[in-house]
Amino acid sequence: MLKRLIPFALPILLAACAMQAPPARSTQSPISNLQSLTVMTHDSFAISEAVLKQFEEANNAKVSILKSGDAGGALNKAILSKDAPLADVLYGVDNTFLSRALDAGIFEPYPSPALSAISERYQLDKENRLLPVDRGYVQVNYDKAFLQEKGLDPPASLRELADPKWKGLLAVQNPATSSPGLAFLMATIAAFPEGSGYDWQQFWRDLRANDVYVSPDWNDAYYTQFSGSSGKGPRPLVVSYSTSPAAEVFFSEGKLTEPPTGNVEGTAFEQIEFVGILAGAKNRALAEKWIDFMLSQAFQEDIPLQMFVYPVVEGAALPDVFVQFGQPPAQALTLSPEQIDANREAWIEQWTQLVLK
User: Fold this and answer.
1) 118, 131, 293, 306: which sits with the fewest CB atoms below 10 Å from its CB?
2) pTM, full prediction
3) Which of 203, 201, 239, 204 lies closest to 220, judged by CA?
4) In CATH terms, are 33-135+272-325 and 136-270+327-355 the same topology?
5) What pLDDT score was predicted for residue 8?
6) Residue 73 has what pLDDT?
7) Domain coordinates in residue numbering, the chain
8) Do the strands 213-215 and 237-241 form a parallel or antiparallel pair, or are they unpaired?
């Protein structure tokens, strides 16, 4: 536990004569010097109470978490309030919104010393306005029992999802309304580039002909359409996360010793989440300490079982359930933030015309 900061002692005046009464002892409480920090996040942010308390006690601070919708919604809120910032720090911008966030000019650079323990492949902003905190992978999951009962092997690739044998068996999310839905669209664009012999538009035409189901969000796709143990639906394939099998075991509270779901190879898209100090932050010094804290061993090792993503700091330990059932995919698809920013809205519109119209 880090040591609590000690308030600055008041100087004691020397007595002018021997008969002068000693000064009264100060009754000032450390809480009168309590610092405040507001951290704006997406709705999926989570931190254990013990770890948050560690930061607050070490800095005699009170941290307020301002949850502000999904990653895109939180960023919009920060941009709209940039002249009167609602928070000191924003966490949750990912690589699909990175260029837009930086172009808005709402972050101040901070080259945290903790960056030395993070691979440069995650440090996408060389000016250190946004610093990497964690990484995750959107990936197609499959229901093991369903496939075993039907005598089917899991799909061996992204392209195989369009095979007629998977007709009516895949649920995805709308990229216009869902973060994993947008990441999966990006995965298909990275795998089947425009202008190639088999491009992403043709892939989605084939998925539509294959009766793909489009959900408005992850909850509907996973819990209503998916046939896995947590789902109630008829479809054994769903766009979710590489950590979903580990989460199934963890949240079963001992009922499961093996995950009932698996991951389809070749379908993972990497998401990296960042944190940055907002321009005009009321407490810049404490904001810097918060970023150092998010990149510390304590916070990084708290991430997996709080948000079911992976730490970016090298050497941060993973919990046993991740080691057994939640290892990152061997390969993941990705696109540059600049490419995403330049084409995101056009791609979503094209997808809407291809799949929903």
Assistant:
1) 306
2) 0.85
3) 239
4) yes
5) 31
6) 86
7) 33-135+272-325, 136-270+327-355
8) unpaired
Matching CATH number, 136-270+327-355, of 1.10.560.10, 3.40.50.360, 3.40.190.10, 1.10.10.10: 3.40.190.10
**Distances in Å between the alpha carbon of 19 and those of 13, 16, 26?**
14, 9, 21
User: What span, in angstroms and rounded, lies between the C-alpha atoms of 90 and 108?
Assistant: 11
Spatial distance between the Cα atoms of 277 and 129, rounded to a whole number of angstroms: 7
Q: Quick one: which H or E segment has residue 278?
A: strand 269-278
Structure tokens at 301: 């090792």
Q: What is the CATH T-level fold of the domain 33-135+272-325, as seen in this structure?
A: D-Maltodextrin-Binding Protein; domain 2 (3.40.190)
Average pLDDT over residues 332-340: 95
Classify 288 in phi/psi space as left (phi over 0), alpha (psi -120 to 50) or beta. Answer: alpha
Q: Residue 295 carries which side chain, given as an amino acid letter?
A: L
User: What distance in Å separates the CA atoms of residue 130 and residue 276, rounded to the nearest whole number?
Assistant: 5
What pLDDT score was predicted for residue 72? 86
Q: 270-313, pLDDT tens digit by residue?
A: 999 999 999 999 999 999 999 999 999 999 999 999 999 999 99
Mean residue pLDDT of the chain comes to 91
